[in-house]
Structures are given as C-alpha cells and as structure tokens.
C-alpha cells in the first residue's frame, strides 16, 4: 500500500494529512509506504493489521498517535526515523512478535503502556537524549521488567 501525498476531491488536488483508523483490522495489507510530508501517524490507523510486516516512514514524521501499530503480531523489529519526538500511548501494545526496538534520536516522550503486551521484546536501544528514564513494558515480558521509574534487563 502506498499512501498518496495528494488526492483529488471535487476537481481539486488536496494534500492527504491524516487517515485515523483508516486501515484498522485490514487483513490484506502486508507493507505500507507513508509519503514525505506526513508529520504524524494517526490514532489506531494500522491497529490489528495482522499481516502487516513493514512500514516505510518519511523523515518528516515527528509523532505516532496512540495504538497506531497495536496488535501487529508479525512485526519483529521496526525502524523509525530520528525525527520522531513522541511515541503515544499503547503504540506497540500486543505486538507480541516485537523483538528489537531502537528509540529514535529525538524522542522526548514515550507515553504509558507503549509496549504493553510486547511479551517477546528483548532488546531496546536508546539513541535519544538521556531525558528518557523509563520504558514501561508488559509484566509478562521475560527479558525486561519495569520498577517505579526504571526499566531493568532481567538476568
């Protein structure tokens, strides 16, 4: 799926600015290309797209809204552009196949439960500023645990 940067509407060419929940629970999408110019991924837009395995993100992206990728069971890793500043609530919730994640360089905020249910997450790399003091992960995660404001790798 290649999302267009512009669309025709009543004879006018208009920029595509968002698509909240547009592809939610779509079982046929396997890959997505998001065009340059998009600054955020809308809430729950790819939620429970169970066959989706890859997304190409533009360098213009600065935020990912809540539950955008929730329920991706085939996702094992994801590469976000370093322009990302905010990762919303439950963005990777129930991404049970997610094994590795790199925090982009400019991230200042990872909201609550961003990785809740990501039970196989074993590696988190932090390229961002030292302002991030915790990433909360699922209690069922066998590799990491969250305690108060710290995330600790299990032995």
Textual characterization of the structure:
By secondary structure, the chain is an all-beta fold. The protein has a 4-stranded parallel beta sheet with strand order 4-6-8-10, with no helix packed on it. A 3-stranded parallel beta sheet has the order 7-9-11, with no helix packed on it. Strands 1-2 form a two-stranded antiparallel ribbon. The radius of gyration is 16 Å and the shape is globular. The mean pLDDT is 78. Helix content is 0%, strand content 26%. A hairpin with a 2-residue loop joins strand 1 and strand 2 (12-15). It has strands at 6-9, 12-15, 31-33, 40-41, 54-56, 63-64, 77-78, 86-87, 100-103, 109-110, 123-126, 144-147, 150-153. It has no helices and 13 strands. It starts with 5 loop residues before the first strand and ends with a strand.
Task: List the keywords.
155 residues; mainly beta; four-stranded parallel beta sheet; three-stranded parallel beta sheet; globular
Classify the secondary structure makeup into a structural class: mainly beta
The total count of helices amounts to 0
- Give the strand content: 25-35%
* Total strands: 13
- Helix-strand string: EEEEEEEEEEEEE
Overall outline:
globular
Main beta sheet strand tally, sense and closure: 4 strands, parallel
């Amino acid at each position: 799926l290649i999302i267009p940067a512009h669309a025709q509407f009543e004879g006018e060419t208009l920029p595509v600015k968002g698509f909240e929940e547009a592809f939610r629970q779509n079982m046929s999408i396997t890959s997505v290309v998001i065009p340059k110019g998009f600054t955020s991924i809308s809430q729950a837009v790819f939620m429970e797209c169970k066959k989706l395995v890859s997304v190409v993100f533009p360098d213009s992206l600065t935020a990912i809204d809540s539950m955008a990728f929730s329920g991706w069971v085939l996702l094992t890793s994801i590469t976000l552009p370093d322009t990302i500043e905010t990762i919303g609530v439950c963005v990777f919730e129930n991404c049970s196949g997610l094994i590795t994640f790199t925090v982009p360089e400019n991230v200042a905020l990872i909201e609550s439960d961003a990785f809740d249910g990501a039970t196989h997450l074993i590696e988190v790399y932090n390229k961002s500023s030292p302002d991030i003091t915790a990433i909360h992960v699922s209690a069922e995660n066998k590799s990491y645990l969250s305690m108060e404001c710290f995330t600790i790798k299990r032995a």
